[in-house]
Amino acid sequence: MSAPSSSPNRWWALVVLSLTQLVVVLDGTIVNIALPQAQIELGLSDSERQWVVTAYALAFGALLLLGGRIADYWGRKRTFLVGMVGFGAASVFGGLAQNGTELIAARGLQGLFAAMLAPAALALLTMTFTHGKDRNTAFAVFGTIAGAGAAVGLLLGGLLTEFADWRWCLLVNVFFVILGLVGGLLFLTESKADGNNRYDMWGAITVILGLGSLVYGFSLAEGGWGSLDTIGFIALGVVLLVLFVWIESRVAQPLLPLKVVANKVRGGAFLIQAVSGSVMIGATLYLTFHLQIVLGMAPFQSGLASLPLTLAIMVVAGIATNLLPVIGPRPMMIGGPLLVAIGLVYLSQITADGNYFTQVLPGLVIMGFGMGFVFVPLQNLALSGVAPHDAGAASATANSAMQIGGSIGLSIFTAIYAASAGSLEGLSGKPVLEAFASGYSAVFLAAAVGMVLASVIAIVLIRGTKSELLPQGDAPVMVHAG
């Protein structure tokens, strides 16, 4: 059984689980700032550079459902500890990589073990904080860290790249892993699903291949949306995912019980999480490129320049946590994405000779305000009303939505960037910087459209009274994010 809500160790468990969430989320972006240096040292092509980011998010997202079921059936604490060890080993492999193939493979292995870690951590959190204000507080802290992790990764990546070496963006995980292992052994209590459980292997195969094919197809769109390869892989991905749904509706113990996503509120939360992931993983990568390549910032400067996004998320998280029982999650889920969209539209006005304080900073602050209002209620909505037996699967779906959204979003943004920037052949000096800025501007506009779509999803699907959407009833307390 899991530690009950009254256990004195539950707050230390929250610290350990939140640290884990921080690691798996920030690793989606920590290498972003290091990519220009890594590309030069390892001789990466632009396509390989993108796959350093995509390999992690794709492996993470595609394997999360299987990871969630492993956590449910094998034991959540055991899965957590094994995932920690594997994640640390993959990080060392990546930190010592000698070429692009090794680095991309290491990032994929990181994603594989993160797919064990993340659902185990969220399921342990769900089983540890079962109701009341403690649950609301725990989910608010966890959700805020999940939301801010991408921006924290940019700051830490800049610090390590400039004052140590880009390889430390991977090697630093060893310290987190040691803390996670010690904390996990001391403060986490084992739990797993009851009964005689079987793995849904056909479901696992179809969803992994389907998501992989879909993301790979979108990654090929940089060369043109009309190419046979692009259309073929995207179509194959869709067919495999339809087959996956068909399998899940017929097996006795599905990898993803369809009731988890059939609920309109949870389904809406998963969709919004996917769009938010595309912005936090994809758009922040192009923000990094603009800060370093166009504005000429050093890596640490670039990381500091992204910090207002994190700070704004953390400040708003406390406000949103207090507002949640007063106004309910629906207004936040509608208004938050619209604020993010406004910030992205502001960022889309960047120019080659622009200034950070006038063209970038206000947009980041507005984005952070919006993301704070999205992330606080999002995790709770995604797991609301889920049976304990399905906690790992629901947790995996929530994380998978963000990672796959980030993978597909990054691929789409790359194609939009390439189309807007045009050919750079023969350009140098200011003209090439103008082309870069034009491409980045198009990416931010596309991300803004996505966040407007997220608001529409909330209007249509996140419906119900405060008590229906927030069944715990007790008011959450202020979250102090530091």
From TrEMBL:
Entry-linked Gene3D superfamilies: MFS general substrate transporter like domains, Multidrug resistance protein D
Keywords in alphabetical order: Cell membrane, Membrane, Transmembrane, Transmembrane helix, Transport
Tree of life domain: Bacteria
Primary site of residence: membrane
Domain Major facilitator superfamily (MFS) profile as annotated: residue spans: 13-466
Listed transmembrane segments: 12-31, 51-68, 80-98, 104-125, 137-160, 166-189, 201-218, 230-247, 268-289, 309-327, 334-352, 364-383, 404-422, 442-462
Protein name: MFS transporter
Compartments where found: Cell membrane
Topology within the bilayer: Multi-pass membrane protein
Organism: Leifsonia kafniensis
SUPFAM superfamilies: MFS general substrate transporter
